[in-house]
Design brief:
Keywords: Membrane, Translocase, Transmembrane, Transmembrane helix. Pfam families: E1-E2_ATPase, Hydrolase. This protein is of the alpha/beta class and 812 residues long. The protein has 27 helices and 21 strands. Strand 11 (386-394) and strand 12 form a beta hairpin. It is elongated.
């Protein structure tokens, strides 16, 4: 008889050395051969009948949709009508604004098409291919190649891609929370139904496809969720709000301008039409939407080159707003693989026998996780041993198990999992486990079960046999990435199912601030407010269940945090789905890739800073250039109102404002929109832009109108209007140039060069005779031009003062 804590390594018939888990091996029912699946001929017949899963996973809009979205816009329609009118009534230089719109639209279509090609290519690389059994052999096929009646093999982390009926099940547990909202996994047995959109949390098996294509439960939902989109972001919704207000202002102002120029003023018809159009066109911030689309599209292309698949475009913006990132340790801070460092028998157990048990446990699992794979690599399967029952690993249980026939009439049941879950509190082995965890090592406990695997608590009364010490491989880029988040004031929280002390030691090796503040999730408070306080106070959390991960994300969000969640395992799916931004590794389970907005196809955690930086570049730069565009809209509307009230000719022809817009907005905005920008993204986009645009536009309009009215009093004669227009144009250009100079801060060599180049280009127009004639700009005399410069200087100084007061007294 063996003593307590020992393992009988021989073939003893002693009752104390055997666990009776059912029938003896020779009485076991004969193994049922697996179903062979469809034959090639049956697959061909199904394809011919159209019984194919023909729901394409779309990562982007089609080229026709891209063209339609860029061409058929409200403002393109307005500009297009005005352009056609100008082509008939005015010289070609007054129609330049129309050619600019055509060029802008073409650029937008081309850039989004490039982004589409990038996304489509990455989607193919990152596409998970289900394993389908045909002609008796398993093989990977594309999701769209599955036919009705196919036998599809599934395991932990696999997504159920079509509806079906379970035909084989080995401890199969399926999470249907994405469909039903119920978080608890559902045990599936042969004959049970599985629904597309659910995923496997434990065990394995096979199911036969009963509904494919658009008949499948989640097909329409999945197709819609997978589309490349430019909506549902604060940035784009804010721009839409601004454009709505602009439209409301434009309509009555434009009507008033038309009446004043064509009816009230006794002007030449063609000249009146040209100046009316010159007043309406600059009210339209036509380039703002274009630049936003281009900035997003180029962001997708840049990230695509780094093997980062952006499944939902606003994720670039969302990650830039993140202030808390929750990291799963395994696969994120550490590489997927592990190595067995040592096997430490307990209670006098024989190490050679323990290795045979571990080898048999590994051989009995067709889909081993990273920990068990390390055991398989270190412990070969023993000859003559047979697995008679299994309990798949579950992240909720924290252990797996198997009943083994050792080939000599000995039948035992073993469990392999977390020591602090399987051991009683105060057990001697826990002290040794804690010491190993403090060194950053992962420890598994091999225990001999006291009963069968089908009981409510198979781990109850388990007898400890050996500790399996695993060494995790740290990701070489993880330390630099954590340092980046620290520099950017983004709090990192490590949330893992492993032992908290072990996780803290790993995080400490990587230099994570607060890694010493570890917390066992089994002690977490249930109340959301208390949970959020605990999360704010601590950095590393261990023994976290999948449901707790989800609760933790929700608690952080309730505290006002914008949360990103990274992970690659099936236990991360619920948290990834609920986080503001979900980030999955390319090598992660199919389920995690399906719910994540961003997939790192190269499995490199170091790509995340690039995504954050890209998002910050887009948001910060679009906020800057939006101010440029909307200052123009405000001063255009106000100028038109002042002209209507004063019953004077509108001071500008379309060519003048085309020149000003190109030099002070169009060209510089393109460079500024694509420039590096590390500013942390801030909320309230509309308020941030309008608090600068309104006072800036008002000052610019008043300064320009003052110069115009002064010039009207100074110049006399029937041909004085061109001189008045030239003086007003000079003032407006200088004020707009100063707005550009403010927006371009902080200065770098190229930003200074950009502003200087725009100023130089305007001087060239004023100095070259044929350009003077082309743009109808000629400064007459010296008094009025210098007066225009003086008024512009005063206006520029006023804008500087007012914007600083806005910063101080009207914080967002």
């Amino acid at each position: 008889m063996t003593q307590r804590g020992q393992v009988d390594t021989g073939g003893s018939d002693s009752g104390n050395s055997r666990i009776d888990t059912g029938a003896e091996p020779d009485a076991a029912p004969p193994a049922v051969p697996p179903e062979p699946g469809l034959t090639s001929a049956e697959v061909a017949e199904a394809v011919a009948r159209g019984e194919v899963n023909d729901v394409p996973v779309r990562s982007s809009r089609s080229l026709a949709e891209i063209a339609r979205a860029n061409i058929f816009t409200r403002f393109n329609a307005i500009i297009g009508v005005l352009w056609v009118i100008m082509l008939f009534v005015a010289p070609i230089q007054d129609s330049l604004f129309g050619f600019v719109i055509v060029a802008n639209t073409g650029i937008g279509i081309f850039q989004e098409w490039r982004a589409k090609r990038t996304l489509d290519g990455l989607a193919v690389i990152g596409e998970a291919k289900p394993t389908v059994r045909r002609d008796g052999r398993p093989g990977e096929v594309s999701t769209s190649e599955i036919v009705l009646g196919d036998l599809i093999e599934i395991g932990p982390g696999d997504k159920i891609v079509v509806d079906g009926e379970v035909r084989e099940a080995d401890g199969l547990e399926v999470d249907e929370s994405l469909l039903t909202g119920e978080a608890d996994p559902v045990v599936k047995r042969p004959g049970d139904e599985v629904m597309s959109g659910s995923f496997v949390t434990a065990g394995g098996g096979a199911f036969r496809a009963t509904k494919v294509g658009r008949e499948a439960y989640a097909a329409q939902l999945a197709e819609e969720a997978s589309r490349f989109t430019l909506v549902h972001s604060e940035l784009r919704s804010g721009i839409s709000t601004i454009l709505k207000y602009v439209t409301w202002m434009m309509v009555p102002t434009a009507i008033g301008l038309v009446v004043s120029q064509l009816v009230v003023r006794d002007n030449d018809f063609k000249n009146a039409v040209a100046r009316t159009v010159g007043g309406i066109v600059p009210m339209v911030p036509e380039g703002l939407v274009l630049l936003t689309s281009v900035a997003f599209a180029i962001g997708v292309i840049r990230l695509g080159r780094k093997q980062c698949l952006v499944q939902e475009l606003p994720a670039i913006e969302g990650l830039a707003r993140v202030d808390t990132v929750c990291l799963d340790k395994t696969g994120t801070l550490t590489e997927g693989g592990m190595d067995v460092q040592a096997i430490r028998p307990l209670g006098g157990a024989d190490e050679a026998y323990v290795r045979r048990v571990l080898g048999a446990l590994g051989a009995g699992d067709p889909r081993p996780n990273a920990s068990l794979q390390a055991v398989i690599d270190a412990c070969p399967a023993p000859e003559g041993w047979r697995t008679t029952g299994t309990l798949p690993f579950s992240s909720a249980r924290k252990y797996s198990g198997a009943s083994l026939d050792e080939g000599d009439a000995t039948h035992r049941t073993w469990l392999l999992g977390a020591p602090d879950v399987l051991l009683r509190p105060g057990a001697e082995a826990l002290a040794e486990t804690d010491a190993l965890n403090e060194r950053g090592l992962r420890v598994l406990l091999l225990s001999r079960a006291a009963g069968g695997l089908d009981g409510p608590d198979p781990g109850a009364g388990a007898e400890p046999t050996a500790l399996v010490v695993l060494e995790q491989r740290l990701r070489p880029d993880a330390a630099d990435t954590l340092r980046y988040f620290e520099d950017q004031h983004v709090a990192a929280k490590v949330i893992s199912g492993d032992n908290a002390v072990s996780v803290g030691a790993v995080a400490g090796k990587l230099g994570l601030p607060g890694a010493e503040r570890t917390y066992d999730a089994r002690k977490l408070p249930k109340e959301p407010e208390a949970l959020a306080d605990t999360l704010d106070e601590n950095t590393v959390f261990g023994r976290v269940t999948p449901q707790q991960k989800r609760d933790m994300v929700g608690a952080l969000q309730a505290h006002g945090h914008t949360v990103a969640m990274t992970g690659d395992g099936v236990n991360d799916v619920l948290a990834l789905k609920d986080a503001d931004i979900g980030v999955s590794m390319g090598s992660g389970s199919e389920a995690t890739r399906a719910v994540a907005q961003i997939v790192l196809l190269n499995n490199s955690f170091s790509t995340l800073p690039s995504v954050v930086a890209e998002g910050r570049r887009v948001i910060g730069n679009i906020t800057r250039v939006a101010t440029l565009f909307l200052v123009k809209t405000v001063y255009s509307v106000l100028l038109a109102i002042l002209v209507v009230l004063s019953q004077t000719e509108y001071p500008f022809l379309p060519r003048h404002l085309t020149l000003l817009s190109t030099l002070t907005i169009g060209v510089p905005a393109f460079f500024l929109a694509l420039a590096p920008n590390k500013e942390r993204a801030q909320p309230h986009f509309v308020k941030r832009v309008m608090r600068y645009a309104i006072p800036g536009g008002v000052i610019a309009a008043l300064a320009t109108f003052t110069t115009y009215m002064t010039a009207r009093a100074y110049y006399t004669g029937p041909d004085s209007l061109p001189a008045e227009t030239s003086a007003a144009t000079l003032t407006l250009f200088l004020v707009s140039l100063w707005v550009l100079a403010i927006i371009a801060r902080p200065y770098t060599w190229w930003r200074v060069g950009l502003v200087a180049t725009m100023a130089g280009a305007f001087l060239v127009v004023l100095a070259v005779p044929w350009l003077q004639d082309f743009f109808a700009l000629r400064l007459v005399g010296s008094v009025m031009p210098w007066a225009a410069v003086g008024i512009a200087v005063i206006a520029a100084a006023l804008i500087e003062v007012v914007w600083r007061l806005v910063d101080r007294r009207l914080p967002v």
